[in-house]
Specification:
single chain, two-stranded parallel sheet, globular
Length: 137
């Protein structure tokens, strides 16, 4: 069953453009955070990357991703995205020149704006049931 208004078969908002922006800010977080922490502790830099990549990989909301390892409510997914956004912004200001950090801040603001529909859907509890793309009835 297709939800034409949402653009998907699960009711999840169609967020292809938002996904691209979200992934870009994630990449920045994965690069800038260890860069900012490396001068203090290489172990802390490695742990930050493991956390920034590992948590969203392992924890996901059913219906939001096709593969769910550990199911969590929608608000956890929203907090994980906010963690990535905050890490990207703070770390870029600590590690990079002001012009680059300003661009990252603009990217982060764009991410927050483009994620609103998905976050509303996640926070409304609409992401329940089998994950998107599963064969469950």
């Amino acid at each position: 069953m297709t939800d034409a208004a949402a653009g998907t078969t699960t009711g999840r908002p169609d967020d292809r453009a938002a996904s691209v922006v979200r992934f870009a800010v994630e990449l920045v977080a994965w690069v800038a955070t260890p860069w900012a922490l490396a001068g203090h502790s290489w172990l802390l830099a490695v742990l930050a990357v493991v956390m920034l990549i590992g948590l969203p990989t392992c924890l996901s909301t059913p219906g939001d991703k096709t593969s769910v390892i550990v199911a969590v409510p929608g608000w956890v997914t929203v907090l994980l995205v906010l963690l990535q956004v905050a890490a990207a912004v703070v770390s870029s200001w600590l590690a990079w020149p002001g012009w680059a950090a300003s661009l990252v801040t603009l990217l982060a603001a764009t991410t927050v704006l483009t994620e609103r529909r998905r976050w509303q859907w996640l926070l409304a509890g609409a992401a329940v049931g089998p994950p998107a793309g599963s064969t469950a009835p």
